[in-house]
Amino acid sequence: MNLKIPAIIVFSFATIGALFVSPSFAQDEKTTEFDNLQVIDKNIKRPELIGKMKKITQALGVRCTFCHIREESEGRSQFNFASDSLTHKEIARSMMIMTADINKSHIAKLATAEHSPEVTCFTCHHGYKEPVVLNDELITSVKENGIDSAIALYHQLKDEYYGMAIYDFSEDVLNLTAVELAENGMIDDAIAFLNLNDEVYPEHTDTKEFYVMIYVGAGMIDEAIEACKVVLEHDPENGRMKRTLDQLQKSKEEANDGK
Length: 259
What we know:
This protein has helices at 7-21, 46-60, 87-105, 121-125, 134-145, 147-161, 171-183, 187-200, 205-217, 221-234, 239-257, and strands at 69-73, 76-80. By secondary structure, the protein is mainly alpha-helical. The protein folds into 2 domains: 41-131, Photosynthetic Reaction Center, subunit C, domain 2 (Orthogonal Bundle), CATH 1.10.468.10; 134-258, Alpha Horseshoe (Serine Threonine Protein Phosphatase 5, Tetratricopeptide repeat), CATH 1.25.40.10.
């Protein structure tokens, strides 16, 4: 088994190392004049600025070169931190403005004496350069390449990223993926994801209830009845499923009587 070190740790050390060797940062800490600061306070102290940049690189799992270019000067490569030539830098500015506004206009209202929540880059990025949501990627894969490719993608991503913060591999994600597919009329694909969830998390009883929900929504009464019975085999005291089963069986009887 190959153990993977989370990107956030790797880039923490890499970024710290870069700060020690980068001539642009190895200057007198008392220096407070910086070129082209448009979002960050122009009077910020150097250690504070470095700290902000480190948090961003860690949150996105990137290096300084993601937003800043290196240029040859006097026979050596140096960062040109003032340059706006990279698109990622402009995007970063927009994201910083957005995050500050969210915290000031909304999150601050949730603060209590014990806890002051804050949205940061890591809130969405989780150590990856672009925020990703597992069920979005799976649904896109189903629509573009079919269910087999989507399931293969799930296994690939889980093998590569499980234990890291980038993707949520909890049981609920596959259930939500199935529901979204069912809402779009892709019932077979939805059931395939529930089957996958049953395979990966066989003791997760909630998944078995999602079979009932999807079959009922699709008008597949016989399948819904059988799914109810499976739930009750695992959870005999589930009152909600007992009531659902009674209603489904009554509906089936009424439908048969009307024929």
